[in-house]
Amino acid sequence: FIGRSRTAPDHHQPTQILDNEMPMAGDVIRWHQGGVVEHAVILDDGTVQALHIKEFGAPNELFVDESSSPVPLQKAMETIQQPTVLDVYFTQRMVEDRVHNPHGEHAEDCWLVLDDNTQDTDRL
């Protein structure tokens, strides 16, 4: 999940995707749909995986939405309006379920949003 670097390291801003441009593998995108802010990551196999913000988590931490399956990029881009590529840092967080992960050895993927517009990162 490398994605593309679009800004200088000291200034993180989201980048609007042009009409004829497609997001690349590793890109995390944000768009508004029906008054709700949506997030997704473009996977290496050319599919789009929905991301979400945990109910009691930080507003700039995005995690894989386990309730949705990846969809092909071309199909997803038919319904996504005006996506923005976010500057993110990929990391992993310990799974907080102490019943199924009592020793903290299991982790889940996490994308930290680095852009300056975190007020746009609404809870889903």
Number of beta strands: 9
Mean pLDDT: 81
Helix content: under 10%
Poorly predicted runs are 5-11, 118-124
How many whole angstroms does the radius of gyration measure?
Answer: 15 Å
Order of helices and strands: EEEEEEHEEE
Query: What fraction strand?
Result: 35-45%
Shape: elongated
Count of helical regions: 1
Structural class: mainly beta
Multimeric status of the protein: single chain
Terminus-to-terminus distance: 23 Å
Major sheet summary line: 9 strands, antiparallel
Overview of this protein structure:
- There is one protein chain.
- The chain is mostly beta strands and 124 residues long.
- It has 1 helix and 9 strands.
- The protein has one helix at residues 73-79; strands at residues 15-16, 28-33, 36-42, 47-52, 61-64, 71-72, 84-86, 88-94, 107-113.
- Strands 1, 2, 3, 4, 5, 6, 7, 8 and 9 form a 9-stranded antiparallel beta sheet that branches.
- Strand 3 and strand 4 form a beta hairpin.
- It is elongated, with a radius of gyration of 15 Å.
- It starts with 14 loop residues before the first strand and ends in an 11-residue tail after the last strand.
Please outline what is shown here.
With 124 residues, the protein is mainly β.
